[in-house]
Here is the input.
Amino acid sequence: MKNQDDHLNHAIIEFYEKLSSWEMAVVKDNGFSLPQVHTVEILGLNGPMRMKELAEKIGVTTGTLTVQIDKMVKAGLVLRRAHETDRRSILVELTDAGQVMFEEHDKLHMQLTADLTVNFSEQERSLMLDFFKRINNEF
Amino acid sequence: MKNQDDHLNHAIIEFYEKLSSWEMAVVKDNGFSLPQVHTVEILGLNGPMRMKELAEKIGVTTGTLTVQIDKMVKAGLVLRRAHETDRRSILVELTDAGQVMFEEHDKLHMQLTADLTVNFSEQERSLMLDFFKRINNEF
DNA sequence: AATAATAGTTTGATAGTCAAAATATCTATT
DNA sequence: AATAGATATTTTGACTATCAAACTATTATT
Here is the structure.
């Protein structure tokens, strides 16, 4: 059903736009820049990661990421660690302070998720999780 | 169920991150900047809008938006129109070329949505739409 | 009528970004 | 094992995006 798909598509875009807005507002409040929070979010969720991989996930060049990570190292949020097998590569990981920041930020997301699904039944919430998991796997 | 909610939360964040990545990649390919595409997307979805409102949705100050809209006017994507009742306000709306760009971009989103839900039944897709609508209303 | 609040623009300083060049390391071919 | 090509990261210089604050014009409040 074409029209139905159109609605789903637009609902997804609307959701994305609203989440972006929310994230921007949250980030501005706590004094860090959006790329920094984004980085903390990705590392917190996925664990240590190579520069290249991280740059792709964030959507910037590695050159841009280098200067961002420099700042975050200075701020004590992340650290650079040697890759075990590939000496060209560097792993970026959260420091304890970075982990704390991730958890703080994650709490805000948790609250948002709770607010958004306040009218969902236990069963609906579980179905929604299943849908998201399947969609995320298709990316 | 606390743990379940945590999973839903993280699945949502993962979805958001992946969609961001996708959007970045798409935008870079077609030569426009992310804020410009973002603006076209919002105007195409919501119709004409005041500067203030648009700035809030995008997550920038009105000063920043002014220069962005200047560029987009020059590029022929949007135009400024007087507000009917409030002479302080200005409505920004898509030109025909802007509308075309919106539809082109929307097609890419449509394709992505179709790809992501390729394994969904008609019923699941409809349920997913219902979930997104309810969530969007809670924002 | 005066004052405060709001919408938008302009400006100067700061931060973010990219492309291209440079360095170091890894992989593949001969 | 030697060479050539590919890959990961950093550095650099130019450009773009961003904000905060000052400014203009209009509307709302008292």
User: Anything to note?
Assistant: Strands of chain A lie at 49-50, 78-82, 90-94. Chain A touches chain B through 58 residues (CB under 8 Å). Helices of chain A lie at 2-30, 34-46, 51-58, 62-74, 96-116, 122-138. Residues 33, 35, 60-61, 63-64, 67-68, 86-89 of chain A lie near DNA strand C (CB under 10 Å from a C1').
